[in-house]
Amino acid sequence: MTVSDGESYMNDGAGATESSTLSLDDGDIHVCQDGPRDAPALLLIHGSASSTRSWNPMVPLLTGSHHVIRIDLLGHGRSAKPADRSYAISDQARRAGVALDRLGIEHAVVVGHSSGGAVATALAERRPDLVTGIVLVNTGPGLGAFISPESAAAGPSQWPPTDAQLRQFASTGFSRAGYRIPEELLDDVRGMTQHTFTTTMRGTRSYLEQRTLPDRLRVLGKPLLVIFGEDDRRWRSSSASDYRAVPGAKVELLPGLGHSPLLEDPPRTAAPLLAFTAAHAVPVD
Length: 285
Prior knowledge:
CATH superfamily: Alpha/Beta hydrolase fold, catalytic domain
Low-confidence stretches: 1-14
Number of helices: 9
């Protein structure tokens, strides 16, 4: 379905999607594109142990006004999973920037869910010319906001994980126990290697240990929107207020939603996002 530097079409539940694989120097990156190519670009970055598919419910709500681009970070989804490449946040951000360059994108609002928000922040650090605005969806500002993994949020204890371990790990990504977890999200974890899973988690921790996200974002001067499900079971939702240290930052709390509002209630998640991009997306020349 995908070919190096080629194009094909698929249906991921989000309508017709143009799918391609970009051959980068340190691994192939899978890319999905939706919406008009002459509309302002919107890059969506998934969290750890996820993929482009986590954004499927959101995409139809965004394509009316945006060229929506999704990538599978190295080690995830349909991208390569090499054992000898870096999975540090800064390197994942570098690859995202190269992918946008390959697609001819000069400016984009970048949206990151969970640890994808750390990648979005790192991309703005590396490529301030490229990023016109940042949206963080349930991205913890620092390790102090992490909820102790009594719920196994740190990940399965063995590899390959059992179905029970997978469901326990994934369950904390939603506001309530018993939420019907989409099978494709469990498949995303199954499709990873133990190396890519553990090094990805380690990369996020290291990035947050070096400096909190509000400290990083404060000096960038980029428009910032933070969307946070109030019932997050992985990161304390009260920590969203830490982002108010960033000048001009807007924080939207969504009552009744958990760590994955993009899946639990796409319309409520899309509303503040679209209002933000209307103000900060750059039209294509």
